[in-house]
Amino acid sequence: MSPGVHHIGLTVPDIGEARRFLTEALGCVELFTTPPAASPAPLADAVARALNVAPGVTIRGIALLRSGTVLIELFEYAGAARGAPPQNHAAGAAHIAFDVPDIDAAAAAVTAAGGQLRGPVNLARSPGFDGLRWVYFIAPWGQTFELVD
Question: 112: pLDDT confidence band, cut at 50, 70 and 90?
């Protein structure tokens, strides 16, 4: 049996900005958001190890959004230096591809909400994807995403 996907977790530098972008640009539905913690308590050692975060890191906020049948969990951490998101070729990099009914309208919404398209909408001509239209984009905080129809 192949497992299903329960949720996808993303670390973002500003949870409010990420919530706004994902709801405005992609129509994600916000299910809940924790109030931002001005002075969050350090994570217990076991929790920090489980989350694979550096000692002293805290969770400033968590939000859960829904895109179709997939949940997207957003984390905003505080207490450690953050680098830019990895480029797609880097080990550990990932992107989410959103299945949209009208890629041209979705691309316009992404741009209007502050995302940057990484080129024109493309038409795939490869096995398994033949006829699929796609375009990658960068969210305002640097995360790579994709639109497909």
Answer: very high
Give CA–CA dist 137/142, Å, rounded.
9
Grouping H, G, I as helix, E, B as strand and the rest as coil, residue 3 is: coil
Q: Helix %, strand %, coil % for the chain, to 5?
A: 20, 30, 50
Q: What are the backbone dihedrals phi and psi of residue 37, each rounded to the nearest 5 degrees, phi first?
A: -90, 115
**pTM of this structure:** 0.88
Q: Provide the H-helix boundaries in the chain.
A: 15-26, 45-51, 103-112
pLDDT digits (tens, 9 = 90+) for 32-60: 998 776 677 778 888 888 888 888 888 88
Q: What DSSP letter does each residue of 81-123 carry, written as one string?
A: ---PPPPTTSTT---EEEE-S-HHHHHHHHHHTT-EESSS-EE
Which residue is listed with tokens 């920090």?
48
